[in-house]
Amino acid sequence: MPGLSLPSSRDEAWRWADLSALPVLAEARPSGAARILPEPFGDGPWLVFVDGVLDAARSDPGPLVLGPVEAASDHPLARLAAGSGWTLRLGRDHSAPGLVEIVHVATGGANHLPALIDLTDDAQASIVETFVGDGWANRQTLVRLGRSARLKRAVRLAQASGFQSLRDEAELKAGASLITIVLAEGSAGSRIDGHVHLAGEGAYAEMGGALLTRGTQRHEAAVVFRHDAENTMSRQTWRAVADDTAVASLAARVEVARGAQKTDAEQSLRGLLLKRAATINLKPELEIFADDVKCAHGATVGELDAMALFYLESRGVGPDEARALLTRAFVADALARIGVEQVREVFEAEADAWLGGRG
């Protein structure tokens, strides 16, 4: 991609980011090789994108519309995702027909895709997205939720190599609810960005997940919640696990405007080091201009509890299984908020497989 301009680590918002592989991926050509797709969760709408292009033969769009998406952004990676993508637009009191599933397949090189989720008053939808393959998958998702609209999203980052960059920009009207949970369990690196604007009274937003890293892998999440109305609530629950010499970084920010009285916001950032050569960076931030709020944050990094390991091993649990059990408990609360039981069970099973596959 000629003239690729990437943010510098001298920028505070990108201080822990490693984008050094992106210029090479941007110049590479995708192979177009077929990939085995994950099993669908049901018979709802199903889209398959291969290198950012719809595979119509393997897709069933249902109410989703394919075509140009107006997704202008000043985000340095999101602005690359322009042009054709997918849109889910639901009218008042409408619900998506079943679980909406979207699979992104990368076969090398770089691909960019925008999306728009526009739910009018009292509409609701549940969406699960999965990333597989090799290459740079760059996505921008715009979310607009009308009064009392509800959206549940689960995102699975499972590429074998390359990089996955996601940018969510959301605006919530009065009483709207948005829950986004991410599981990063593949071998590719990632950058997860979010800016969520709670613009209406009583809006609720939640974003979090589990970032699992090993080898020389790097995962990073940077999410901002902006509270601009009274009685809004937000939650950020992130768990990071780092093995070998891997790096996981979490930055969570809450901004409370002067008029956003009775805001209730919590951040929970926790990191678990499986090897002392690994690195976990945590950065919780609160910027509060209202005086009647309830805001809290917590950030901790540690290792597995030696006494708990000893207890399990003294009862016949092998060392590897004991470590896996404790690590599973560590990430469990981050995945527990996935709203569709079948999806939650699959995500938990895949996290278990990652934990059980430690070298």
Oligomer: single chain
Percentage of helical residues?
10-25%
Shape: globular
Tell me the distance between the termini.
37 Å
State the total count of DSSP E strands: 17
Strand fraction equals over 45%
Taking pLDDT < 50 over at least 5 consecutive residues as the criterion, the unreliable ranges are none
Q: What is the H/E order?
A: HEEEEEEEEEEEEEEEEEHHH
Q: Mean pLDDT across all residues, rounded? A: 93
Structural class: mainly beta
Summed up, the helix count is 4
Main sheet attributes: strand count, strand direction, barrel closure: 17 strands, mixed
Radius of gyration equals 20 Å
Précis, in short:
The protein has 359 residues and is mainly β.
Characterization of the model:
With 359 residues, the chain is mostly beta strands. Helix content is 13%, strand content 47%. The protein is built from four helices and 17 strands. The protein has helices spanning 22-27, 306-314, 319-335, 341-356, and strands at 46-50, 53-54, 65-69, 83-90, 100-119, 124-145, 150-157, 161-172, 177-184, 189-198, 204-213, 218-227, 233-242, 247-256, 264-273, 279-288, 294-303. The protein has a 17-stranded mixed sheet that branches. Helix 2 (306-314) packs across helix 3 and helix 3 (319-335) runs antiparallel to helix 4. The longest helix has 17 residues, at 319-335. The protein is globular, with a radius of gyration of 20 Å. The two termini are 37 Å apart. The model has no long low-confidence stretch (mean pLDDT 93).
List strands and helices in order, with pairings.
Layout: H1 22-27, E1 46-50, E2 53-54, E3 65-69, E4 83-90, E5 100-119, E6 124-145, E7 150-157, E8 161-172, E9 177-184, E10 189-198, E11 204-213, E12 218-227, E13 233-242, E14 247-256, E15 264-273, E16 279-288, E17 294-303, H2 306-314, H3 319-335, H4 341-356
Parallel strand pairs: 1-5, 4-5, 5-6, 6-7, 6-8, 7-9, 8-10, 9-11, 10-12, 11-13, 12-14, 13-15, 14-16, 15-17
Antiparallel strand pairs: 1-2, 3-4
Helix pairs in contact: 2-3, 3-4
